[in-house]
Amino acid sequence: MDTMPRWADIALIPLINLTLALLVSALVIALIGENPAQAMGVMIRGAVGSAYGWGYTLYYATNFIFTGLAVAVAFHARLFNIGGEGQAALGGLGVAIVCLSVPWPHWTLALPAAVLGGALFGAAWAAIPAWLQATRGSHIVITTIMFNFIASALLVYLLVNVLKVPGSMAPETARFPEGARLPSAYDWGAWMGFGRSAPLNVAFFVALACCVAVWVLIWKTRLGYEIRAFGQSEAAAKYAGIRPVRTIMITMLISGGLAGLMAVNAVQGEAERLVIDSVQGAGFVGIAVALMGRSHPLGVLLAALLFGALYQGGAELEFEMPAISREMIVVIQALVILFTGALDNMVRGPVEGLFRRRRKGAT
Amino acid sequence: MTIMKSLFGATAIVALGAAAATAEPGLIIDLGGKFDKSFNESAYNGAQRWLEESGASYRETELQSEAQREQSMRRMAESGANPVVVLGFANASTLEKVAPDYPDTNFTIVDMVVDQPNVQSVVFKEHEGSFLVGVLAAMASDSGTVSFIGGMDVPLISKFACGYAQGVKAVNPDANVIVNMTGTTPTAWNDPVKGAELTRAQISQGSDVVYAAAGGTGIGVLQAAADEGILSIGVDSNQNYLHPGYVLTSMVKRVDNAVYEAFEAGAAGEFQPGIKVMGLDNNGVGWALDENNEPLITESMKATVEETKTRIIAGEITVHDYTTDGSCPAY
Amino acid sequence: MTAPTHTEGRPAAAAPSQTAPAIELRGISKAFGAVQANKDISIRVERGTIHGIIGENGAGKSTLMSILYGFYKADSGEILIGGQRTDIPDSQAAIRAGIGMVFQHFKLVENFTVLENVVLGAEDGAFLRPSLVKARRLLVDLAREYELNVDPDAKIENLGVGMQQRVEILKALYRQADILILDEPTGVLTPSEADHLFRILRGLRDEGKTIILITHKLREIMDVTDNVSVMRRGEMTATVRTADTSPSELAELMVGRKVLLRVDKTPARPGPVVLKVENLKVTDDKGVERLRGIDLEVRAGEILGVAGVAGNGQSELLEVLGGISDATGTVTLNGTPLDLSGPRADGRSRRHAGIAHVPEDRHRLGLILDFTAWENTGFGYHDLPDYCRGALMDQTALRNDTRGKMERFDVRPADCWLHAKSFSGGNQQKIVLAREIERNPDLLLVGQPTRGVDIGAIEFIHQRLIELRDAGKAILLVSVELDEIFALSDRIAVMFDGRIMGERLPGQTDETELGMMMAGMDGKAR
């Protein structure tokens, strides 16, 4: 049935997609009169050429792992959770409340509590659209995207009116107390060359653990089996006694919880306080990451690393080559998403044909 | 892991060491962009002036989002820039966190006080400058109603509004001062459409001079005022040229001087940590008069405002600073 | 040229020679990966005949027709239409060549009218009105000529399947098709609708049209065709005149060996009542009463066959008993009442109670096509202790169990890692049956057990059901194939319009009586 070997599906096609995207990006850079080779060099060196770059690349990747897993889990139940942005924002609120309300003696205690807080708030924010989908049939794409706006407005209100430090002008919470700050890469990875600046923190390992957990959940547990069966065919799931409302709710709670966990990295790990727009679009990047990673945790991990590198490389490019504006970098990132996500079939068809011809030649 | 280690070790030193030797100053342009015709542009102009006069070079980067502050600041410090100038109060908490990590780098923050041994905090007496343009507004107004549009609703902007209102009331105690803020988040600095909307609302309440202290939002305010045929007052940079004949004056806040001096001090090795206050006395703030607004300013207006300025510097007039107690006697 | 009507010739095949066959295929071959779907197929379809193509599932009939209709491109071979070599790269080209296709699953726009559907894709210009006027005139003509009566202004969603099929034929005729291909056209029809269809087809033939009828029902071939071609495993095994052959000969050509059309079984020894259904009512979400008070019982050790034309409530009956949809009334299993609504009216609770269910539509309900065979073997039973280790699934146990089931049920290929979609229909059905039967249920619900299943597998499946009966289990069999009902049932209940029309013993009735009951007439009254 399958016309391609698995390695080609998993590695070759994304690689070709990526190369095409970079070629077009190079063309665009050349068009604005900059040297594409130099720009690519800056991007690659900036992302993975130094411990400084790795610190940021992995930090961004951590965000994308969480949001990518969130989207991927929902995908398995054929639920399109566009609400990662809002769920992660609410997760930030949960993390901030946990970190600020208790005088944590040590981060080892604060981390599990923050994980719980972030996941709970993210899940709660996903629960409402999930409930509407499960019982009223309101389309989850519409409701989750609306909940992004509500989340953003809610956070602005809370940060401006409730959580702002009295006397401060910036709409942000107080900095978390010492005991709630997560060890950064400098604390545990200085021997690898990470400097004080590295935003990479232990949340990265939480993200890796989540990848494993999601893999076990989806492919090894009964619940995952039910989620996948429900995603493949709701009618068949009913036949098998898999309850739709329950499955939708649980899946979305897990999805929202994973999105909420992003705050452990961004809010607790890096900023150490809750600011406005702490998610920075990672919720949406998560969609691209899940698509590119084919909703498989390993794929999500690799795609998240790629996007992390693109983000950090982009920031570096902007810094080193001011002629390439921020908008240009967004164009490059968008090209990668376009080629790897939307135009996947454009490459897949010819490559499949190639393999078919080769196989025919062999037999 | 060992491969990663050697990779990290080798490249990190090369990448970061190369930049450190040059020690150029660095400027981080805040949200709104460097051509906001206001706060950021003023800073940019200061850097450009230093560039032309010194013949040296400097590093510059532009913020795109709130959450980027830390990375930009660190990146600037890592690249070896010294001193690093950051603009705006919103950077305070980030700088508080970042500055201790780079004890050898000097930072200058504009508009906010950060108490660190390697940070210089530049604050302006915006209330004094605003008082002067308030005096002009009251004298130019026929309706006896003038207005103020702030960007983000923070004490700093209320400081502008309060100084302005005091100046107005000093000339015309019965005057009506309308005060509006554009929003409560940093997006309020860059929302010209909302600015224009607020201006029209104020005009319908009778205002005939509007003072904008709102960054990029002010562009919309000045535009709407010119469209509706009333007078406006610009802020930070000299904005008189934007709509000649309609911009009464501008409350210039010499962010350019602050940046220029920070760069200059850095190059000369004379960086001074601590608080630096810029007011009327040291030309940190002031009112703008040029060929664009000359026809609007009568001799008596000019005389009055210059006299007021002298008296403020001399301490004969005390302008209340809103941020000291969070209240304003004029409204 | 005046405005074209359906009677005018096509430009593409102008002046075809009268002696040339309507269609001739020469050496057509087509492979999908390693599977040779069509192997060197040559066939001549004479003008003005009804030509049947018969074969088991997976014999390659549909592939061949898809090549003819431009969905697939043959790897080798050539197509001659009216004696001229013709390339058919897509369905537009097929239509230009005068070929019309009526699919098994209709391709109609539900909320368009008949007229709009007929015109769709063949509009004469940017404006719809001239096409509609022309189509209306044509529809009236066709209705008169061929008994193709359809209300042009009816919406498709309000029409029965028989009517919808006529719309498909009208669509083809409107596009001036000379050659009409029908893929399993009677699968969804009542016997009288099927008869009507055959009258239409004969009428079309007598007008000079050529008709290709794809079916797996021997009786239809014998009834209506002039010539018949038999396909087996991608090859064309024979083309004969229908008058010169017999059903048993065709069946032999199809499967390559003699087939038992009747199942050997001993008389049933019915035990106590296992399933008792009283006054069961179901109203669908459109407010239509689909079950109007069903009463029936099934005893241990017997097969109750439920006959009826599709759409008369049999599906609803199975879904209610299987816990998929809600109902009112009383259902008891071994004397214990079952929940008909609420959280315990679901497939899981039914299985725990001892009911296994082989659904009518294995693609929609019985299997997850993108799951592997072993994953499908656990489907519905995934929470049973023998497949679980805590929250995890015991995949090793499940796979071992699947291998055993595949061997016992002769599932080919016996690879538990293959996806369900990679198996043929018969083997998919065996996977479902193995799963449900081997749970040793008190009651087995079976819907259309041999739909889309080849003859070899039919035999196997029938034997398994009889074995289960002989083991003292109760079986409720729903089938639209009367042959199957007769072959398996110990009692036969006939459903019509949501009611049980009556019960008969297989030895004391015949197909004519059941057919009348299925059409809503009391069989005794004839």
Verbal overview:
The complex is a heterotrimer of chains A (363), B (331) and C (526). Chain A is built from 15 helices and no strands. Chain A has helices spanning 6-31, 36-48, 51-76, 84-101, 107-136, 140-162, 185-189, 203-220, 222-232, 234-239, 244-271, 282-292, 297-320, 326-342, 344-362. The longest helix of chain A has 30 residues, at 107-136. The mean pLDDT of chain A is 89. By secondary structure, chain B is an alpha/beta fold. Chain B folds into two domains: 2-125 and 256-278, Response regulator (Rossmann fold), CATH 3.40.50.2300; 126-252 and 285-325, Response regulator (Rossmann fold). Chain B is built from eleven helices and twelve strands. In chain B, helix 2 (39-54) packs parallel to helix 9 (255-268), helix 5 packs across helix 6 (155-171) and helix 7 (192-204) packs parallel to helix 8. Chain B is globular, with a radius of gyration of 21 Å. Among the domains of chain C are: 22-93 and 213-255, Rossmann fold, CATH 3.40.50; 273-368 and 440-525, 3-Layer(aba) Sandwich (Rossmann fold), CATH 3.40.50. The relative contact order of chain C is 0.10. A six-stranded mixed beta sheet of chain C has the order 6-7-8-3-9-10, sandwiched between helices. Chain C has 526 residues and is α/β, with parallel strands linked by helices. In chain C, strand 4 (76-81) and strand 5 form a beta hairpin. Chains in contact: A-B, A-C. Chain C: It is a peripheral membrane protein. Chain C: Residues 23-258, 275-522 form the ABC transporter domain. Chain C: It comes from Meridianimarinicoccus roseus. Chain C: One of its GO terms (molecular function) is ATP binding. Chain C: It holds the Pfam family ABC_tran.
Short description:
Chain A has 363 residues and is mainly alpha-helical. Chain A is built from 15 helices and no strands.
Give the key terms.
heterotrimer; B: 331 residues; alpha/beta; Rossmann fold; six-stranded mixed β-sheet; C: alpha/beta; 17 helices; 32% helix; ABC_carbohydrate_import_ATPase (chain C)
Proportion in helices of chain A: over 70%
Q: Are there runs of chain C of 5+ residues with pLDDT below 50, and where? A: 1-17
Radius of gyration of chain A: 21 Å
What's the overall geometry of chain A? Answer: globular
How many discrete domains of chain A?
A: 2
N-to-C span of chain A: 16 Å
Q: Which range does the strand content of chain C fall in? A: 15-25%
Order of helices and strands of chain A: HHHHHHHHHHHHHHH
Please tally the β strands of chain A and state the result.
0
**Biggest sheet features of chain C:** 6 strands, mixed
Q: Identify the most extensive interface between protein chains.
A: A-B, 40 and 43 residues
The helix tally of chain A amounts to 15
CATH-level-2 architecture of the domain at 273-368 and 440-525 in chain C: 3-Layer(aba) Sandwich
CATH level-1 class of the domain at 273-368 and 440-525 in chain C:
Alpha Beta
What's the overall average pLDDT of chain A, rounded?
89
